[in-house]
TrEMBL record:
Native organism: Amorphotheca resinae ATCC 22711
The protein's name: SWR1-complex protein 4
Annotated Basic and acidic residues bias: 1-10, 484-497, 513-524
Main location group: nucleus
Coiled coil: 265-292
């Protein structure tokens, strides 16, 4: 039977409200006493134990000493930073002077009166620091500070602003409002307006530093300056307004750049550092290579190797020794017999000469073989260099047949020149000197050698073209001379006079008259040279005219 059935039997409503919530007992917080155990406090139950804690605190003494209270006085003071003589007063602790010995009472009273007469200075006057602006008079300005762009009145105005605003140049430039004085208006019609010049911050600085440096050297010579003064003097002299303007413009552009531009600049700086580090490393490796290429000092006799025959015999000996003593491979299988004759030393030398890449390949090969079950490692291939590494280390793959023995690059470069004649070699050397290039390269790298070879070929080709041009010019001159001679003979056969013959004869007669006027001795010395000169200066027309006259006489 449920509660609903009971309600139907008793005619009670079926809808019943929610069940009332149980009231929670609110327990007041128990007061805990410090210094008592928990078991003792729990004996009281809900009622706390009525125990009043004892506080042992005593009243402190109000006065630590029995001395009398200090005396204060309302004393006047002045401020040396002020231009006016304003006197103010403030409270100061009164200081009692020690008692004077007997017989000096009059002096003590006089000192007290003098101390009272002298007023104290303000404690804030020491913070009034004023800058020292250069001073000058009219005579010094005329001697050292004359300028076409600056007048004395404007210079004084600038010095006054620098003194007032303590060399704070942004404030000085903001307050700079110089008005030039009005000119004399007597006898002048109309109004004359003086336009002030626009001065930039750098112009104001440059003028001030120039005046300060000039007056500094006037008041104190350079040989009497200390190091700090001389450094300041050099700094003021070396001030450059254009450089300062460019620096501020660069700083402004750097401030207004975007985030992407800043990241790009940072990446460029990192790349530049990487390039510089790489170049330093390459230079260090190059120096080490040159140090290794230098011949070590020898204690034996090397005179037998000074000739080509001695070097050839030395090469044959080295090749024989190399063939007799085969170097044992580092990756030889186990149980192989060692090579006779110092194999340990050869193996050690091979290990020293191996580079890091070969060591890495050996370590990888040994590790892989160990994982497979400890089988004997086989020979590994050398790491192939990339194009950039080959270009860096100067590795090349020549297609031509190489000769036995060492071959230096400068010999290959000088071979096209040495095969020429002595005159051709002199011409090539003179051409290189005109271009400012040495006949032998200091650093004959592979790239430099290619360019140098192309330059030598161009010079040789140019000399060949020049010789051919000279040859053609000579042949053309000979052909012209033959043609002129042929025309002359044809005119002589026809009896025609040569053009310009009369003018040449007149010039010759005038020259003979001038020679006759001179002294006899000088005429004797000069006449042979004049005749020889005239003989050289006579043209083909003169000779042709003489031949024409002789032919006419024969006809008559």
């Amino acid at each position: 039977m449920t509660s609903n059935d009971v309600r139907d039997m008793l005619d009670l409503p079926g809808n019943v409200g929610p069940r009332p919530a149980k009231k929670q007992k609110i327990a007041a917080p128990k007061s805990t006493l410090k210094g008592l155990a928990r078991e003792v406090q729990s004996l009281g139950g809900d009622n706390p134990i009525a125990i009043v804690p004892e506080v042992t605190a005593f009243k402190k003494r109000r006065f630590a000493s029995r001395k009398p209270a200090a005396k204060w006085e309302f004393k006047p003071f002045k401020n040396s930073a002020r231009k006016d003589d304003l006197i103010l007063r403030h409270w100061r602790r009164k200081t009692e002077a020690p008692p004077a010995p007997a017989g000096q009472d009059g002096k003590t009273e006089q000192a007290n009166a003098q101390a009272e007469a002298e007023m104290d200075d303000s404690t804030f006057a020491k913070f009034n620091v004023r800058v020292k602006v250069p001073t000058y008079d009219d005579e010094q300005y005329k001697l050292y500070l004359q300028s076409e762009d600056w007048s004395k009145d404007e210079t004084d105005y600038l010095m006054g602003l620098a003194q007032d605003f303590d060399l704070r140049w942004p404030v000085i430039w903001d307050r700079y409002e110089y008005q030039p004085p009005m000119p004399d208006m007597e006898g002048v019609e109309g109004a004359i307006m003086t336009v002030p010049k626009t001065r930039s911050l750098e112009d104001l600085k440059a003028r001030y530093y120039k005046v300060a440096a000039a007056m500094m050297i006037v008041h104190k010579p350079q040989d009497k300056m200390i190091s700090s003064e001389f450094a300041m003097y050099e700094t003021m002299l070396s001030f450059n307004p254009a450089q300062e303007t460019a620096r501020k413009k660069f700083a402004e552009n750097a401030f207004h750049r975007t985030r992407d531009e800043a990241k790009e600049e940072e990446s460029l700086l990192l790349e530049l550092k990487r390039i510089l580090a790489r170049s330093d490393k390459l230079n260090e490796e190059r120096r080490e290579l040159y140090a290794r290429l230098e011949a070590p000092p020898s204690t034996g006799n090397i005179g037998i190797y000074s000739s080509s025959q001695g070097l050839q015999s030395l090469l044959q000996q080295l090749m024989t020794v190399d063939k007799s003593k085969k170097r044992r491979s580092l990756m030889a299988p186990e149980g192989a017999s060692p090579a006779p004759g110092g194999s340990n030393l050869l193996q050690q030398g091979n290990l020293d000469r191996r580079d890091s890449s070969v060591r890495e390949s050996m370590s990888v090969a040994s590790a892989s073989n160990g994982k497979r079950g400890g089988t004997a490692p086989g020979p590994t291939e050398r790491r192939q260099l990339t194009e950039e590494e080959e270009r860096t280390y100067g590795v090349s793959h020549p297609t031509d047949r190489l000769t036995s023995g060492p071959l230096f690059r400068y010999e290959k470069l000088s071979k096209p020149v040495t095969t020429k004649s002595t005159a051709q070699q002199m011409k090539i050397t003179n051409t290189l000197n005109e271009l400012g290039l040495p006949p032998r390269l200091i650093m004959p790298t592979a790239d430099t050698g290619v360019v140098y070879e192309s330059l030598i070929e161009s010079i040789i080709r140019m000399l060949q073209y020049r010789a051919l041009s000279d040859k053609l010019s000579g042949e053309i001159a000979i052909a012209k001379a033959q043609k002129a001679e042929k025309e002359k003979r044809e005119r002589a056969a026809r009896g025609e006079p040569e053009p310009g013959a009369g003018d040449a004869a007149a010039q010759e007669e005038d020259h003979d008259d001038e020679v006759k006027v001179e002294d006899g001795e000088r005429q004797k010395s000069v006449a042979p040279s004049v005749k020889s000169d005239n003989a050289h200066k006579r043209s083909a027309s003169v000779l042709s005219s003489v031949s024409d006259k002789s032919t006419k006489r024969q006809k008559k």
